[in-house]
Amino acid sequence: MARKTSETAQRTWYRAQSRRALDPHLAVYSATHHRGVCGDPAAIHAKAREIAPHIHGVWVVREDAVDALPPGIDHVTPGSRRYHEVMARATYWVNNVNWPGTLAKRPGSVHIHTHQGTPLKYMGADLLTKPGARHGFDVPQMLRRADRWDYSLVAGRHAERAWERAYPCHFTSLRTGSPRNDVLVGAGPERGREVRERLGIPAGHTVVLYAPTRRDYRRGGHVDRFDPARFAADLGPGHTLVVRLHPSLAGVWRAAWGWPTCTSGACWWTRRTNRRWRT
User: What CATH number does the domain located at 2-180 have?
Assistant: First the structure.
């Protein structure tokens, strides 16, 4: 009874806030189901603070991820009173996954969907003819949520065509590339040294990246392609294997390989010690 009363109060508060005008100086951000400040939304937020400081950004973050937030990040937790106020009044919405279906898109609001990389599997409407791959997915609900997008950020023509086929909705594709990758172009040598030091990669090592995606034809998404430990050893001296996991696979790989928790989805080996690390 108490929970039902609380949910009713939240909906009432959300409806009340939705009667107020949109705040033209308010943007709300989220990434990978509220896991924290990361991905393309984080890159957009950082750039917005630089070129549009009058737009105040608020992040939606799960309670278990709050302690890991960078300093100075304004945030709300899902279901809180301020969360409903921010969601009702924000003009700009930025996310790399869909927002909950309980949130309404108000006239005048701008929804920017960044996705999570290059589309190399079946998604959205593609799943209607793939009963095995769509296990656990409500395709009509996915399309209703996608129809709230105003802009879909794509890395190139392939991604543009794939997203527009998978989500035949009323949005505009923008070939901006992935904002999170801008740092790969604009970062100087010092930034590279900082990253190597943080990841424990010895100076002078050649880095080899392995970034497996989720396999939609296998329940759970994980497919063993090869032995990463053996591959790291076979690379020989002077090489470091970096494994960048899809967020949905981090738990699977932890169980399969005995890795520690990888909340950011990034784990790696060094050839020198074969020790496993995480961010």
Answer: 3.40.50.11820
- Decide: 109 and 22 in contact? Cβ < 8 Å: yes
Per-residue pLDDT of the chain (279 residues; tens, 9 = 90+): 445 458 888 889 999 999 999 999 999 999 999 999 999 999 999 999 999 999 999 999 999 999 999 999 999 999 999 999 999 999 999 999 999 998 999 999 999 999 988 888 888 898 888 876 666 778 899 999 999 999 999 989 999 999 999 999 999 999 998 999 988 888 888 888 998 898 888 888 999 988 887 777 777 777 777 788 888 889 999 999 888 877 777 665 555 555 544 444 444 444 443 444 343
Calpha distance 38→1 (Å, rounded): 37
Question: Sign of torsion, CA 159 105 53 70?
Answer: negative
For the chain, where do the domains classified as CATH 3.40.50.11820 start and end?
A: 2-180
pTM: 0.83
